[in-house]
Amino acid sequence: MNESELRLDRQICFRLYRASRSIIRLYQPILDTLNITYPQYITMLVLWEDNVIDFKDLGRRLDLKTGTLTPIVKNLEQLGYVQREQNREDKRKIWVKITETGKELKSRAQSIPESLNHFINMDQEQYERYAFLLDELVDLLKNAETKQKEKELR
């Protein structure tokens, strides 16, 4: 391995880390006005689309493990935005449902994408290009994860 490969500025993981932290820092002042965190916001995005969802499906949609998702949902429940209910047919399953207060939050959050774009100043073509590249990168990384797990099982 070439020694220059071990430089911080050569690591794609560090670029992604910086980008992730930067975007969350942009979101946070806007989300502070709603009294929610970024993980709570993306959870609410799913619930604004679906209204009710199985807890495990919510975790899959957000790519979050149960241990990470549980406190997020619990805090949203304490804020009155969601409620958890046991599935009547299968007691092992939990439904996460949006409440009326959670639905009202959506109208207050409606301007978030536009507010963020005001600061980022990205046109639609750039947005679509970055979205495509990021989706492609996630697919590559998911495939690499699968290969790594398969190798560990051997």
Q: Give me the Rg, rounded.
A: 19 Å
Largest sheet: 3 strands, antiparallel
Mean residue pLDDT: 94
Helix content: 55-70%
| Helix-strand sequence | HHEHHEEHHH
Beta-strand residue fraction:
5-15%
Query: Which descriptor suits the 3D outline?
Result: globular
Number of domains: 2
Named CATH topology of the largest domain: Arc Repressor Mutant, subunit A
**Which spans of ≥5 residues are poorly predicted at pLDDT below 50?**
none
How would you classify the helix and strand content by structural class? Answer: mainly alpha
CATH superfamily of the largest domain: Winged helix-like DNA-binding domain superfamily/Winged helix DNA-binding domain
Distance between the termini: 26 Å
Number of helices: 7
- The tally of beta strands, per DSSP, is 3
> Which strand order spans the largest sheet, edge to edge or round the barrel?
1-3-2
Based on the coordinates given, report the CATH architecture of the largest domain.
Orthogonal Bundle
CATH level-1 class of the largest domain: Mainly Alpha
Explain this structure.
- This is HTH-type transcriptional regulator SarZ.
- Belongs to the SarZ family.
- GO terms for molecular function: DNA binding; DNA-binding transcription factor activity.
- It is found in: Cytoplasm.
- The chain has 154 residues and is mainly alpha-helical.
- It folds into 2 domains: 3-110, Arc Repressor Mutant, subunit A, CATH 1.10.10.10; 122-154.
- It has helices at residues 12-32, 38-50, 55-62, 66-78, 100-109, 112-120, 124-153, and strands spanning 52-54, 82-86, 94-98.
- The protein has a 3-stranded antiparallel sheet.
- Strand 2 (82-86) and strand 3 form a beta hairpin.
- The longest helix has 30 residues, at 124-153.
- The two termini are 26 Å apart.
- The relative contact order is 0.09.
